[in-house]
């Protein structure tokens, strides 16, 4: 075995360390909160599942399944995969726990955590990515589509994000998509396309419409679009979703060429795009997946949800010059001068923390100068300076770090003084 002198995180996997980790937490928790405010209940699910769940749920022909899965055999030879996305796992859990039989539909769930895709790493594209996602299962109501979208929009806006847009389209349903697919294939097969693109047209013709090469773009300019070939019911569903979004004041642009990387989508699909991120501009996406639950062995229930990229939202906020989150600062910093004082301050710190006040201490016995410097750097509002003589007199120095004023206060009363001061 070769000996390495230092270890680094796996390629394409970001670490979040202070102070940037505060942005990460603020984004994740802010997006979760938007969902909680709309009645979504938290689910905590495994980060690995049977490989077949994703193959069946996400679709064998997708890049996510065919090229990007982190798959491994356990010690018994059973194949598991680190979850590349959240929807399939949520469906599995809903079926397993009988939530699909619930009398109270829709079942509304929110989740957050890491997902794994073996992609070529680049700015904003990671092999371990973090999402906040919601799934609303069991009611095929355009108002629910609009709610899901509005929750994402509200989550981004509450974080201060501004320069993003919502792109939306309808992928139709089983009554119109097969016919449209044939129509599109007929159109594509008549074009002078290269072999590779022809193959793609045979397997997943929709993806050819998303081809970024100018020559292909030009060739497909007049291609038939799903949105012009929707069934009456899919069309009416889509129009109602847009109507609700208008009423809610959620701005959108219809992008009939939108292609999502997962196979389960039907009807409403959408993406949130941020232009400050370069190539990896998708900060979130989702849609309806009305056949997925039945496909995975559950009741024939409809569903809609989203996955919002936490990493990319952090980057988008930074690109706008509005980093999220406050760096973790404690309001109070203890400066002990001597061992007995240290112990007393530790007890006081525990008391104050129990009262909800953040307290940090100078450790390592570094003398008053170094400890006061640490208090300064910590950003605390108050420093507590305790020496052996103070301890004998049962007082403590309370220093206001902004003004520099320091006064002696009774040690037994300082907790109450700080609580009164900092709570207000
Ligand atoms: P997705 O579009 O594959 O959808 O991923 C959602 C979001 O995750 C993307 O918009 C992006 O912000 C972020 N993301 C994806 N891959 C990466 C990556 N390699 N690096 C950084 N961020 C990434 C889903 O996963 C669906 N499960 C969403 C959904 C829920 N649809 C219905 N319900």
Automatic annotation (TrEMBL):
Specify which residues bind L-histidine according to the UniProt entry for this protein.
85-87, 117, 131, 135, 260, 264-265
Q: Which CDD domains match?
A: HisRS-like_core (cd00773), HisRS_anticodon (cd00859)
Subcellular localization is given as:
Cytoplasm
Q: Does the keyword Repressor apply?
A: no
Q: Report any one BP term from Gene Ontology.
A: histidyl-tRNA aminoacylation
| Span of domain Aminoacyl-transfer RNA synthetases class-II family profile | 26-336
EC code: 6.1.1.21
Q: Which keywords does the record carry?
A: Aminoacyl-tRNA synthetase, ATP-binding, Cytoplasm, Ligase, Nucleotide-binding, Protein biosynthesis
Q: Single GO cellular component annotation?
A: cytoplasm
Example of a GO MF term: ATP binding
Under the heading Pfam families, the entry gives: HGTP_anticodon, tRNA-synt_His
What catalytic activity is recorded? Answer: tRNA(His) + L-histidine + ATP = L-histidyl-tRNA(His) + AMP + diphosphate + H(+)
Main localisation, per the record?
Answer: cytoplasm
What InterPro entries does UniProt report for this protein, alphabetically? aa-tRNA-synth_II, aa-tRNA-synth_II/BPL/LPL, Anticodon-bd, Anticodon-bd_dom_sf, His-tRNA-ligase, HisRS-like_core, HisRS/HisZ, HisRS_anticodon
Into which family does the record put it? Belongs to the class-II aminoacyl-tRNA synthetase family.
Q: Describe the protein's quaternary organization and the partners it interacts with.
A: Homodimer.
This chain's protein is named Histidine--tRNA ligase
Organism of derivation: Nocardia bovistercoris
Please state the gene responsible for encoding this protein.
Answer: hisS
């Amino acid at each position: 075995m070769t000996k390495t002198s230092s270890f680094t995180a796996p390629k394409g996997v970001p670490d979040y360390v202070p102070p940037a980790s505060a942005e990460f937490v603020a984004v994740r928790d802010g997006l979760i909160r938007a969902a909680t405010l709309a009645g979504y209940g938290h689910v905590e699910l495994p980060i690995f599942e049977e490989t077949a769940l994703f193959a069946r749920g996400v679709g064998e022909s997708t890049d996510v399944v065919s090229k990007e899965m982190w798959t491994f055999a356990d010690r018994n030879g059973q194949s598991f995969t680190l979850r590349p996305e959240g929807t399939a796992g949520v469906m599995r859990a809903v079926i397993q726990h009988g939530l699909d039989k619930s009398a109270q539909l829709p079942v509304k769930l929110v989740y957050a955590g890491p997902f794994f895709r073996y992609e070529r790493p680049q700015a904003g594209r990671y092999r371990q990515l973090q999402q906040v996602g919601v799934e609303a299962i069991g009611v095929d109501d355009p108002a629910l589509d609009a709610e899901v979208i509005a929750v994402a929009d509200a989550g981004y806006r509450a974080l201060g994000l501004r320069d993003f847009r919502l792109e939306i389209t309808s992928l139709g349903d089983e009554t119109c998509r097969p016919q449209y697919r044939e129509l599109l294939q007929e159109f594509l097969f008549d074009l002078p396309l290269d072999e590779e693109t022809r193959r793609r047209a045979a397997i997943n013709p929709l993806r050819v419409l998303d081809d970024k090469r100018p020559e292909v773009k030009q060739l497909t300019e007049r291609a038939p679009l799903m949105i012009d070939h929707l069934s009456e019911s899919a069309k009416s569903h889509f129009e109602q979703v847009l109507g609700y979004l208008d009423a809610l004041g959620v701005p959108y642009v219809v992008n009939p060429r939108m292609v999502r990387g997962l196979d389960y989508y039907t009807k409403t699909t959408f993406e949130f795009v941020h232009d400050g991120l370069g190539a990896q501009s998708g900060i979130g996406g989702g849609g309806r997946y009305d056949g997925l639950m039945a496909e995975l062995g559950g009741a024939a229930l409809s569903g809609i949800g989203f996955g919002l990229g936490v990493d990319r939202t952090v980057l988008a906020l930074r690109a706008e010059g509005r980093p999220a989150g406050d760096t973790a600062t404690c309001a109070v910093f203890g400066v002990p001068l001597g061992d007995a004082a240290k112990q007393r301050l530790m007890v006081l710190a525990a008391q104050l923390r129990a009262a909800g006040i953040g307290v940090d201490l100078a450790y390592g016995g570094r003398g008053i100068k170094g400890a006061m410097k640490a208090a300064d750097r910590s950003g605390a509002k108050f420093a507590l300076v305790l020496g052996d003589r103070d301890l004998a007199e049962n007082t403590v120095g309370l220093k206001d770090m902004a003004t520099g004023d320091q006064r002696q206060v009774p040690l037994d009363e300082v907790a109450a003084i700080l609580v009164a001061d900092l709570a207000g």
